[in-house]
Amino acid sequence: MTTVRLPLFPLNTVLFPGLVLPLNVFEERYRAMMRELLKTPEDEPRRFAVVAIRDGHEVAPSAPGMPDPTAVPDRGPASGFGADPLRSFHKVGCVADAATIRERADGTFEVLATGTTRVRLLSVDASGPYLTAELETVAEEPGDEAGTLAEGVLRAFRQYQKRLAGARERSLATGADLPDEPGVVSYLVAAAMVLDTPTKQRLLQAPDTASRLRDELKLLRAETAVIRNLPSLPAVDLTRGPTSLN
């Protein structure tokens, strides 16, 4: 088994391959990570792994009132994740390639990264200034009838978009043609749907593309039916996640 060790960035969100992830980095542990990534030559990938938090806090208490008025300061690379950080994270995450890392005058960072490949979390090391993890790549198998399923998901997704636009009382304008490659379709739809983190995590770690598409088809039909009765819904960009405050 071939493994790789990368910096680990836990978030309260799921990153999918192809999803653009903006980050506002202000905690010292993640600032240290970005400073280290900036040492990588610009013509080489600046990679880190993103995992969704199962049990813990994305932002560790750093001072009274930040972020909890009753919190006591908590510092270190594993702050907010308990004595065994491995147990605090979902086991399947995604490698992120940072296209932009811009340091601000106050030492915080503005980062724009893109998800690339799925990885399985094997171990977490908290001995340095930031978390690192040993990871193995999770192969993306097509599964049975992925092409046919992708066509059905795209049709259902267009109906879902129309319902969303109607619920928001605005016109539908995606600004881009939807892809037709089954794997890309499955990740785009998973990222774009308004779903909770456990459901998105389930889609990320689906055993193959066809299984993910089957799950999405059921979700799209159910969510589209629900939207008919909702007066308004939050806006969702197809390829960008919300800016994380780390």
Structure in words:
The chain is α+β, with helices and mostly antiparallel strands and 246 residues long. Helix content is 28%, strand content 22%. The protein is built from five helices and six strands. Strands 1-3-4-5-6 form a five-stranded mixed barrel. A hairpin with a 5-residue loop joins β4 and β5. α2 runs parallel beside α3. The chain is globular and about 45 Å long. About 5% of the residues have low confidence.
The percent range for strand residues is 15-25%
Number of strands: 6
Amount of helix: 25-40%
Give the helix tally: 5
pLDDT under 50 segments (min length 5)?
169-175, 235-239
First-to-last CA distance: 31 Å
Mean pLDDT: 85
Tell me the major beta sheet.
Answer: 5 strands, mixed, barrel
Oligomer: single chain
Main-sheet strand order equals 1-3-4-5-6
| Helix/strand structural class | alpha+beta
> Which descriptor suits the 3D outline?
globular
The helix/strand order is EEHEEEEHHHH
Cα-atom radius of gyration: 19 Å
Can you tag this structure with a few keywords?
5 helices; alpha+beta; five-stranded mixed β-barrel; 246 residues; 6 strands
Give the gist of this structure.
With 246 residues, the chain is an alpha+beta fold. 28% of the residues lie in helices and 22% in strands.
Fold blueprint:
Blueprint: E1 4-11, E2 20-25, H1 28-37, E3 47-52, E4 92-103, E5 109-125, E6 132-137, H2 146-167, H3 182-192, H4 197-204, H5 209-227
Parallel strand pairs: 1-3
Antiparallel strand pairs: 1-6, 2-5, 3-4, 4-5, 5-6
Helix pairs in contact: 2-3, 2-5, 3-5
